[in-house]
C-alpha cells in the first residue's frame, strides 16, 4: 500500500498509509476501535477502493483481482457472517464450494479444518447453537478451508476467551510456518507480541511499523535497562557512558538507562558506576508491555505538529 | 411510582420505534406512500362499470331477418354492443374462442312460425367463460336481451294497432298460450367452455399464481437482504464468487423450491378440490416456470433496492396488495383505465393468472403473447437486478 487514503463522506478513515507485508509472515494491524483497521482490510480484499494511493496484493490491484488471485486469499470478516441455520460442516462446505473446491478435495479439506480447529464434535450442530468462541473458530475454518496463500483476518480473537485466543494464535503460527502470509487485525494491543510485524494504527494513521522489538525501541527510544543500587545514587552523569542514550531517575536508588544495545552498553555503565564507588544491587532489561508501547507512540504522535494538510501528514514508512 | 415507571418504559419504546422509523426514509416512503399510491391508482383507475360485452349476432341465411349491424344496435340493449352480424354460426363461435367477441347471439330461424306453434322463439346466447361471475353476468345480459327483443315486438305491435294482439300476418293467434304472447322470445344460455365455471376452479387457480409470485418475491428478497446485513455479501465480494453465479444460484434454488410447492399445490387443487386440469401438464409447468422466473426477478429487484429486511418485507407486501387489486384476481383488468391496465400487465402474476386459468380450465392459451410477456418481464427484471447486484459487489 502506498499513500493510501480512504474517505467516507468527508471523514478520513485511513490517511496516507504506506505498508508492505512480507511474504510468509504474520502482520498485525493493531489499534483501537475506529483506527482504520477494517477499512484497510477491506481495501486489501477489494471490497473498498482507496480514495487516493495504490494498493497491490499478490501482484494485482484488488479492484481488478482475477478469480485465481481471489482463490489465493482467505478472508474472515469481523462479524459472524456464516449461516445460522446451516450446521458447522455445511457452512465450511459452502465456503469451500465458493472457492471452487470440488467434491473429494472439498470434503477432505472440510473435515481437516473442522478437526484442526476443534470443531469436529460440533460438526453437525447448527451455527446458531454454537458458542461465540466456536463461531469465531468456524469463521476461521471457513477462511482456511481452501488453503489460501494470504489469510486476511479481521479481529479473529474479538470476544474470544483467552484460552481460545491462544489456540487461534498457535494455529496462525503453524500456518505461517507452512508458508502462509497472514494479515490480522486486533484491538488487543497485547496481541502484537504474537505477530512477526506490527502496524500500529490510530485515527486512520500508521504510527509505526516493524517487529515488536523494533516498535519497543521506537517507543522508548532504545532498549531500557533498569538498575537498582545499594545506596542513593544520582545517575545524571551516566549520560557520558558509551552507548547510553538517556537516563531516567525513577527513585532514590533506581533509574532506567535507555541504551542503543543493552548487551554492549550495560557492562560499560556498570563499570562507570563501580568507578564512582557505588555498588549495583540489580540490573535487568525492561520489556515494557505493548500497551505502554502503544500509549507512548500515540502520545508521541499527538505531540507532533500536524501538517497543514492531513494528506501531507508524515507517517512512518513500512519496513 | 410503579405506574410512573411503567409509563416511562412504554414511552421509551414508543420513542425508540418512532425514531427508528423516521430515520429510514425508504421505510416511510413504502409505509405511507406505497399503500396510498396503490389506493390512488385503484381509485382513479377503476371505472366501476362493466365494459359492454362485444356481441356478434348470427342470423340464419334462410331467415328474412336484417343482417346490418345498425338494426341490432337500435335495439339498444344496455351492456351489449353489437360489433358484427354474421350468417355463419361456426365462424362466429371461432371468433368467440379467439377472444374477438364476448358473446354470440344466435337469432331464431323463424321466430314468427315458432310463436304461431305456441312456443317461445329461442335466442341462443353463447359465451366462452370459465369465470363464474362473468358467466352469471352473461346470463343476466341474455335475459336482458330477450326482454329487449320482446319489448321491440310489442312496440311494433302497438304501432300496428290492437289487431296485433290476436293476429300476426293475418293469422289467428288465439290458440297461442298467454305466456308466449307475453314473452314471444326467451334467451337460452350456452357456454363453450369445456367445464362448468366454479368459484373453486376459477379463484383457486388464480390464488395459486398469486401465492407463487408472493412466495418467490419474498423468499429471494429476504435471502439477499439477510446476507447483506449479516456481512455475507462482504465475504462474497472478497471471494471469487460473481454476481452472475450468485443470481443463478438463488434463482435456481428458489425456482426449484417454488416449482415443488407449485406441483404440490396443483396436485391438491386437482385431486382434493376437484379443479379440472384440461391443459397439458408441460404447458402448465412452462407457465408456472415463467411466472416463478419473473417473480424471482421482481424479488431480486426488491432485495437490491431495500436497505433493510423490514423494507424488503414492506415492498413484498405492497407488491402483493397491488397484485390483488390489479392482476385480475378479484376485478377484471378490462374494468380499469387503459393506463392502469398497462401497469397491471407489468406484474408477472397478471399473466400467470390468465395463462393458468386458461390452461387449467379451458385447455388452451388464447393469448400466447402473455407467455412472451412473462419471458420479457423476467429478462428485464433479472438483468436490471443483476446489474445492480454486480455494482454492489464491486469495490465501493
Structure write-up:
The complex is a heterodimer of chains A (319) and B (396). Chain A is built from nine helices and 13 strands. Chain A has helices at 37-45, 67-70, 88-98, 103-116, 132-144, 162-177, 212-220, 262-275, 290-303, and strands at residues 2-8, 11-17, 26-30, 52-54, 73-76, 150-154, 181-186, 197-202, 205-210, 223-229, 244-249, 254-259, 280-286. With 396 residues, chain B is of the alpha/beta class. Chain B folds into two domains: 53-191, abc type-2 transporter like fold; 198-393, no CATH class. The two termini of chain B are 53 Å apart. The mean pLDDT of chain B is 86. The chains are: A alpha/beta (319), B alpha/beta (396). Chains A and B meet through loops of A and helix 9 of B.
Give the helix/strand layout.
The complex is a heterodimer of chains A (319) and B (396).
Chain A: E1 2-8, E2 11-17, E3 26-30, H1 37-45, E4 52-54, H2 67-70, E5 73-76, H3 88-98, H4 103-116, H5 132-144, E6 150-154, H6 162-177, E7 181-186, E8 197-202, E9 205-210, H7 212-220, E10 223-229, E11 244-249, E12 254-259, H8 262-275, E13 280-286, H9 290-303
Parallel strand pairs in A: 3-7, 3-8, 5-6, 6-7
Antiparallel strand pairs in A: 1-2, 1-4, 8-9, 10-12, 10-13, 11-12
Chain B: H1 2-22, H2 25-45, E1 53-58, H3 69-73, E2 80-86, H4 89-97, E3 103-106, H5 111-116, E4 121-127, H6 132-160, E5 167-168, E6 171-172, H7 178-182, E7 185-191, H8 199-230, H9 232-237, H10 243-271, H11 281-305, H12 309-326, H13 338-344, H14 348-361, H15 369-393
Quick structural overview:
The complex is a heterodimer of chains A (319) and B (396). Helices cover 33% and strands 24% of the residues of chain A. Chain A is an alpha/beta fold and 319 residues long.
- % residues in beta strands of chain A: 15-25%
The CATH class of the largest domain in chain A? Alpha Beta
Low-confidence stretches of chain B: none
Helix coverage percent of residues of chain B?
Answer: 55-70%
Count of spatially separate domains of chain A: 2
The structure class of chain B reads alpha/beta
Structural class by secondary-structure content of chain A: alpha/beta
Amino acid at each position: 500500500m502506498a499513500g493510501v487514503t480512504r474517505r467516507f463522506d468527508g471523514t478520513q478513515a485511513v490517511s496516507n498509509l504506506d505498508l508492505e507485508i512480507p511474504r510468509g509472515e504474520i502482520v498485525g494491524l493493531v489499534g483501537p476501535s475506529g483506527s482504520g483497521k477494517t477499512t484497510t482490510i477491506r481495501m486489501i480484499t477489494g471490497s473498498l477502493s482507496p480514495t487516493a494511493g495504490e494498493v497491490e496484493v499478490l501482484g494485482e490491484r484488488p479492484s481488478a483481482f482475477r478469480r485465481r488471485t481471489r482463490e489465493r486469499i482467505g478472508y474472515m470478516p469481523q462479524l459472524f457472517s456464516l449461516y445460522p441455520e446451516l450446521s458447522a460442516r455445511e457452512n465450511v462446505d459452502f465456503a469451500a464450494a465458493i472457492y471452487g473446491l470440488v467434491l473429494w478435495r472439498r470434503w477432505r479439506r472440510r473435515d481437516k479444518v473442522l478437526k484442526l480447529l476443534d470443531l469436529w464434535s460440533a460438526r453437525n450442530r447448527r451455527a446458531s447453537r454454537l458458542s461465540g468462541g466456536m463461531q469465531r473458530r468456524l469463521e476461521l475454518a471457513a477462511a482456511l478451508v481452501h488453503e489460501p496463500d494470504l489469510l486476511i483476518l479481521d479481529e479473529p480473537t474479538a470476544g474470544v476467551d483467552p484460552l481460545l485466543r491462544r489456540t487461534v494464535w498457535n494455529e496462525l503460527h503453524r500456518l505461517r510456518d507452512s508458508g502462509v502470509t497472514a494479515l490480522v487485525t486486533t484491538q488487543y494491543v497485547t496481541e502484537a507480541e504474537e505477530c512477526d510485524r506490527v502496524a500500529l494504527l490510530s485515527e486512520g494513521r500508521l504510527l509505526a511499523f516493524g517487529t515488536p522489538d523494533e516498535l519497543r525501541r521506537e517507543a522508548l527510544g532504545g532498549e531500557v535497562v533498569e538498575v537498582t543500587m545499594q545506596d542513593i545514587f544520582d545517575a545524571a552523569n551516566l549520560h557520558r557512558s558509551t552507548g547510553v542514550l538517556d537516563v531516567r531517575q525513577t527513585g532514590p536508588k533506581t533509574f532506567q538507562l535507555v541504551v542503543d544495545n543493552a548487551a554492549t552498553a550495560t557492562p560499560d555503565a556498570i563499570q562507570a558506576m563501580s568507578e564512582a564507588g557505588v555498588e549495583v544491587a540489580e540490573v535487568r532489561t525492561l520489556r515494557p508491555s505493548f500497551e505502554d508501547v502503544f500509549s507512548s507512540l500515540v502520545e508521541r504522535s499527538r505531540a507532533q505538529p500536524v501538517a497543514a494538510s492531513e494528506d501531507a501528514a508524515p507517517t512512518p514508512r513500512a519496513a | 411510582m410503579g405506574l410512573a415507571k411503567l409509563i416511562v418504559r412504554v414511552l421509551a419504546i414508543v420513542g425508540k420505534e418512532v425514531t427508528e422509523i423516521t430515520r429510514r426514509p425508504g421505510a416511510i416512503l413504502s409505509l405511507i406512500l406505497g399503500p396510498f399510491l396503490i389506493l390512488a391508482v385503484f381509485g382513479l383507475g377503476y371505472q366501476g362499470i362493466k365494459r359492454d360485452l362485444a356481441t356478434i349476432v348470427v342470423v340464419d341465411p334462410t331467415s328474412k331477418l336484417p343482417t346490418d349491424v345498425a338494426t341490432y344496435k337500435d335495439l339498444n340493449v344496455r351492456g351489449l354492443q353489437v360489433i358484427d352480424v354474421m350468417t355463419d354460426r361456426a365462424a362466429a363461435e371461432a371468433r368467440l374462442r379467439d377472444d374477438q367477441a364476448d358473446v354470440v347471439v344466435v337469432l331464431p330461424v323463424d321466430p314468427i312460425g315458432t310463436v304461431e306453434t305456441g312456443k317461445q322463439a329461442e335466442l341462443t346466447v353463447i359465451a366462452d367463460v370459465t369465470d363464474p361471475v362473468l358467466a352469471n353476468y352473461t346470463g343476466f345480459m341474455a335475459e336482458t336481451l330477450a326482454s329487449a327483443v320482446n319489448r321491440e315486438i310489442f312496440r311494433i305491435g302497438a304501432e300496428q294497432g290492437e289487431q296485433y294482439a290476436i293476429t300476426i300476418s293475418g293469422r289467428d293467434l288465439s290458440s297461442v298460450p298467454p305466456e308466449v304472447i307475453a314473452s314471444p322470445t326467451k334467451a337460452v344460455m350456452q357456454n363453450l367452455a369445456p367445464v362448468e365455471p366454479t368459484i373453486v376452479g376459477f379463484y383457486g387457480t388464480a390464488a395459486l399464481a398469486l401465492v407463487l409470485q408472493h412466495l418467490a418475491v419474498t423468499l429471494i428478497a429476504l435471502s439477499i437482504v439477510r446476507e447483506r446485513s449479516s456481512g455475507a455479501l462482504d465475504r462474497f465480494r472478497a471471494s471469487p464468487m460473481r454476481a452472475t453465479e450468485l443470481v443463478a444460484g438463488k434463482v435456481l434454488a428458489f425456482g426449484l423450491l417454488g416449482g415443488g410447492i407449485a406441483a404440490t399445490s396443483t396436485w391438491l387443487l386437482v385431486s382434493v378440490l376437484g379443479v379440472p386440469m384440461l391443459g397439458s401438464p408441460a404447458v402448465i409447468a412452462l407457465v408456472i416456470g415463467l411466472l416463478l422466473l419473473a417473480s424471482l426477478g421482481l424479488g431480486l429487484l426488491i432485495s437490491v433496492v431495500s436497505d433493510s429486511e423490514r423494507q424488503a418485507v414492506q415492498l413484498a407486501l405492497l407488491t402483493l396488495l397491488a397484485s390483488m387489486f390489479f392482476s385480475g384476481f378479484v376485478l377484471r383488468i378490462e374494468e380499469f383505465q387503459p393506463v392502469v391496465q398497462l401497469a397491471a400487465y407489468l406484474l408477472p402474476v397478471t399473466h400467470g393468472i390468465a395463462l393458468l386459468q386458461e390452461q387449467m380450465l379451458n385447455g388452451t392459451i388464447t393469448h400466447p403473447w402473455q407467455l412472451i410477456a412473462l419471458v420479457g418481464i423476467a429478462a428485464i427484471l433479472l438483468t436490471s437486478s443483476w446489474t445492480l447486484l454486480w455494482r454492489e459487489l464491486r469495490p465501493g
